[in-house]
Design brief:
Blueprint: E1 4-9, E2 21-25, H1 31-35, H2 39-45, E3 59-63, E4 72-77, H3 86-102, E5 107-111, H4 119-134, E6 157-162, H5 167-192, H6 200-214, E7 217-221, H7 223-228, H8 232-238, E8 246-253, E9 261-266, E10 268-272, H9 292-307, E11 312-322, E12 334-336, E13 342-344, H10 352-365, E14 370-375, H11 380-385, E15 390-394, H12 397-410, E16 414-416, E17 434-435, H13 443-455, E18 460-464, E19 470-471, E20 481-482, H14 487-498
Parallel strand pairs: 1-6, 2-4, 2-5, 5-6, 9-11, 9-14, 10-11, 13-17, 14-18, 15-16
Antiparallel strand pairs: 3-4, 7-8, 8-11, 12-13, 15-18, 19-20
Helix pairs in contact: 3-4, 4-5, 5-9, 6-9, 8-10, 9-14, 10-13, 12-14
Length: 499
């Protein structure tokens, strides 16, 4: 469902005529909020101002009883003024949408207060927060929702009230915010579809449809082409499944015919039972999310096309299931990769790095100037960082620092882990070039070391999103389940390369 987001100047009467008007209230400087409101509205909410605490997440909704003006005002705490940044704006806008949703309202109006932020960034972050919060995955529900299924009304329109002098900057910010949110919501929808629907073939069809919509070049390799491309590791993981593998290639050609390519690679495991090294039954249904990296890459390419970035970007998504059958790869098997290296499979549940190995080699052969991959790769990263940060590891310090900065700007934080040579020893095999796991210690690092072997000399970085791509404790603009991380991070990194 499309959400209509409009800009309204603060000096236009329509700016304050709404079913619900959301205003940010700082814990340390509440007077800024009151100064932004017209006097009749201040008088209408006057007594309720005493109930506003200003701490982040505290919401007071007041019925105004005004003949002209908003029917309700949501006074939303945003914390201390020194903590005001783009992420605070996203959360504020999301809480505004939630307040409207809880009251079965189809629209809300948000007063955008840039504070010390650039007006374009302020509008961008506000639009992101509102659009991400308004998304819901309901395509598999019956028409008649159960009473406890949550609000039945969806917010379909959001007005952003801006100062008159910020119109040009606001329009630019809105375009960016809408593109990033649309890309992320596209990824969340793919993530949310169950494994019986979102098969590798389905991802291929979704990629083709999206590419036609936004003007991307697309190629979806089937089994014959995958064999021709010597993607032996992808084929090996696919052996246990009745669903055929796919290798998705999306191209945004914004940098001209001579410009270098930047490669985004995403793990597209549409369901991961672990293979012969089968996972525990408890929680296995969440393994539909093992294609989150691939979904994020597809969403990032969509946003790059929407923004018409002057950059050549290729998105690569190797996709398969990892199941059990009489033909499945066994622990102890030795398989070959596209790059020619042999791998002793110690644990068949460490399959993501196998399919990524072939994709990284393909990206390297394309002549990519830089490669970033994203994957729900290791449970060890959740032990190390919890669910608050994505691990980033890479061969190029400048690239890693750029991703860290993009993550801060996007509100999708990363934290670096080392790739010291000592960790490589844990992957030593007695019968092959390397093993696919390096034991329990430093599992996230040894998994990244495995991938490093296939990136060659190309500047490369790996994002382990196992703890941040989905979950049960969402931020205000997320919902339980699919988060779409790291779409915004990837797009902000691409935008940074253009600047």
């Amino acid at each position: 469902m499309t959400v209509d987001v409009r800009l309204v100047r603060s000096d236009e009467p329509a700016g304050y005529c709404a079913e619900l008007l959301a205003v940010a209230v700082s814990e340390s400087d509440p007077g800024t909020a009151w100064a932004a409101l017209p006097e009749p509205l201040l008088e209408a909410i006057g007594p309720a101002r005493r109930d506003v605490r200003g701490r982040a997440g505290h919401v007071v909704v007041v019925h105004t009883a005004l003949a002209e003006g908003p029917a309700r005002v949501a006074l939303i705490g945003v914390g201390k003024s020194e903590d005001w940044n783009a992420e605070a704006l996203r959360r504020f806008a999301a809480r505004a949408v939630r307040a409207a949703e809880e009251r079965e309202l189809e629209a809300c109006t948000i007063v955008v207060h840039p504070g010390g932020l650039d007006a374009a960034l302020a509008v961008q972050a506000t639009a992101e927060g509102a659009l991400l919060a308004a998304w819901r995955f309901e395509e598999l529900r019956s028409a008649a929702l159960e009473p406890d299924a949550g609000p039945r009304t969806r917010v379909s329109a959001v007005d952003l009230v801006i100062e008159a002098g910020h119109r040009t900057a606001a329009e630019a910010g809105l375009a960016v915010g809408r593109a990033l949110a649309d890309g992320q919501n596209f990824a969340r929808t793919l993530q949310s579809r169950p494994g019986n629907i979102a098969t590798p073939a389905h991802l291929g069809v979704a990629a083709e449809s999206m590419a036609r919509e936004v003007g991307l070049e697309v190629e979806v390799l089937g089994m014959e082409r995958i064999r021709e491309e010597r993607m032996h590791a992808l084929l090996a993981v696919n052996q246990g499944s009745a669903q055929e593998a796919r290798f998705i290639v999306l191209r945004h050609r914004g940098g001209g015919t001579e410009g270098p390519w930047v490669a985004l690679v995403g793990k597209g495991l549409t369901f991961d039972a672990g293979g012969i090294s089968i996972k525990p039954a408890l929680g296995m249904e969440e393994m539909k999310f093992d294609m989150s990296g691939g979904a994020a890459v597809m969403g990032a390419l969509r946003a790059a096309a929407d923004l018409d970035l002057p950059l050549n970007v290729v998105g690569l998504v190797p996709s398969t299931e990892n199941l059990i059958s009489g033909e499945a790869v066994k622990p102890g098997d030795v398989i070959q990769t596209r790059g020619g290296r042999t791998v002793e499979v110690i644990n068949t549940d460490a399959e993501g790095r196998l399919i990524l190995a072939d994709a990284l080699d393909y990206a390297k052969e394309l002549g990519a100037a830089a490669i970033v991959d994203a994957a729900t790769l290791t449970g060890a990263v959740v032990v190390a960082l919890g669910r608050h940060a994505t691990a980033v590891l890479g061969t190029d310090d400048e690239l890693v620092q750029a991703l860290l900065g993009a993550g801060e700007l996007a509100g999708e934080r990363c934290w670096p882990l080392p790739l010291w040579s000592e960790y490589r020893k844990q992957l030593k095999s007695e019968v092959a070039d390397m093993m696919n796991v390096g034991g329990r210690e430093a599992g996230t690092i040894t998994a990244a070391w495995f991938l490093r072997e296939f990136a060659g000399d190309v500047p490369w970085a790996h994002l382990d999103i196992a703890g941040t791509a989905y979950g049960t404790e969402p931020l205000p603009y997320q919902r339980k389940g699919a988060y779409g991380v790291p779409v915004r991070l990837l797009v902000e990194w691409l935008r940074g390369r253009v600047a």
